[in-house]
Amino acid sequence: MAKRKVDTENRGFQTRWESEYMFTKVAGKPVCLLCGESVAVLKEYNLRQHYETKHADKNKNMDMEQRLQKAEELKRGLKSQQALFKKAKSQGQAAVKASFILAEEIAKSARPFTEGDFIKNCMIKVCDEVCPEKRQLFLNVSLSRNTIAERVDQLSINLKEQLVKKGKDFIAYSLAVDESTDISDIAQLSIFIRGVDSNLSVTEEFLALRPMHGTTTGHDLYEEVSRCVNEMELPWEKLVGLTTDGAPAMCGHRSGLVAKIREKMQEENATGELTAYHCIIHQEALCGKALKMEHVMSIITRTVNFIRAKGLNHRQFKAFLTELETEHGDLPYHTEVRWLSQGKVLQRCFELREEICLFLDSKGKDTTQLRDEMFLCEMAFLCDITSHLNAINLQLQGRDRVISDMYSTVKAFKTKLTLWETQMRKENLSHFPSCQTMKEKLSTSAFPSTQLADKIGMLAADFRRRFADFEAQKSRLELLGNPFAVDVESSPPNLQMELIDLQCNDALRAKYAAVGAAEFARFLPGTMPQLRIQAAQTLSMFGSTYLCEQLFSLMNLNKTSHRSRLTAEHLHSILRISSAQSLTPNIDELVEKMGHHQVSPSTSNK
């Protein structure tokens, strides 16, 4: 005989049981109003037996009306008690949630974990003045150093879990890898991922920061990247691109990171080919060295250092500029690491060239070189061309940059170089304002336009050489950039039929014109699967290691000589939180996982 199931018998609680047996229904279960015990099975026999064996003697002299009154009083007391527990539970959850929110803000602002105690003291002082009756609620928020450290780790783990979940939906992904050294001389390997799912939505997030205490050979880099990819459960066959800083350990043909990853993909029987790029921004910055004008920059650097290095000279120079009522009141420093600073130093020195010479004369320094007309012409040219290089550098920077757009920016700059070279040979200085100024002020010698045109030609040649890798991918990049202008006949056979359908579809052509190349890929219909896969692969590619460079700046803000207790794990957690872009920590989920734990005031003050 089958066992009876109580849940299927549809037994209902009867109101008369409240006065007869002093029971009420709480969360679907009968609960005794006198002792608080609950009965497992909602059955009148069970309620009567409980009442008669435990409470009959206490209430035997009460009539029915008295029983009803007492039942109502007990019910009100129970509801009041439940409300109190619910309020305490809610306040506990709010305190925990508040500690998570503040921990996230502390991590994002690169503040030390001990800042939590300072914030709490400020909160209590404000509370005492504004709402003293709420003081206990603020005391319940734990913001001790250990609590903040624990919360930051939990937030980081939550973000990682979200990324792992998203990674399972990627149909293509690429990695950006760069290496730098922190304040403790520990090599840090930064890894970012850019993945595209079946809806052609792009996710660009921090993957890992791996400290490397030993050597940093190609094999060492590969071991760390491989471990990271496996931990995130990312399939090797969906890896499309790898962008690096171009160092030998990264790009070595036999034992570099790129070579090792290609070997790994062959072992995993990956059908696709890994496309490796040297960061576009690095390439562009290196192209500037093709001008071979270090002799000009060295004179400028020596002059700036003479003025800025000694406090007395610096103060006197600023006072001198104030006295002359110049537009600028100081000179900036230049450092090789900060590429954009060179343009700013050159521009300021050119604008203050006469004032600088006067100041150096007053100090007894030789200014022959600084007054030489050929030097001034070269300085003006370097000022203008560096300004153009800085402009393209800024265009290439930023998050969520599509590689086809970055390629178009470089392609446009190469075309500009050709134009500038032609114009320079004709002494047309429309796009070189500093050179135009110098040409108007020349006394005897002619402006060296032919020599400077040759410099532009050298720069253009170096751009073509360094960006040859991107030229090899020209057809793929143009397919994403403007699929309606692609020559069908020269396209891969597996794309030709779909390309014809696409180019003949007026509705899709109108959509492309409305949303642009980057967004248009998401509107490709499911009837064009090959084009969608091609678009996903191209969208997933990194054009630069800008995100890695940005992460190293965040790392240097957090890991300083004043934060010696910051561990590698905590640094990793902080950077994951502060660099998150499309992901946000699910704080409500974390509070729920903690089991609605309410922090006591004594704990919070430890």
From TrEMBL:
Alphabetized SUPFAM superfamilies for the sequence: Ribonuclease H-like
InterPro entries assigned: RNaseH-like_sf, SPIN-DOC_Znf-C2H2
Residues of the SPIN-DOC-like zinc-finger domain: 14-60
Pfam families tied to this protein: zf-C2H2_12
Protein name as catalogued: SPIN-DOC-like zinc-finger domain-containing protein
Coiled coil: 54-91
Assigned keywords, A-Z: Coiled coil
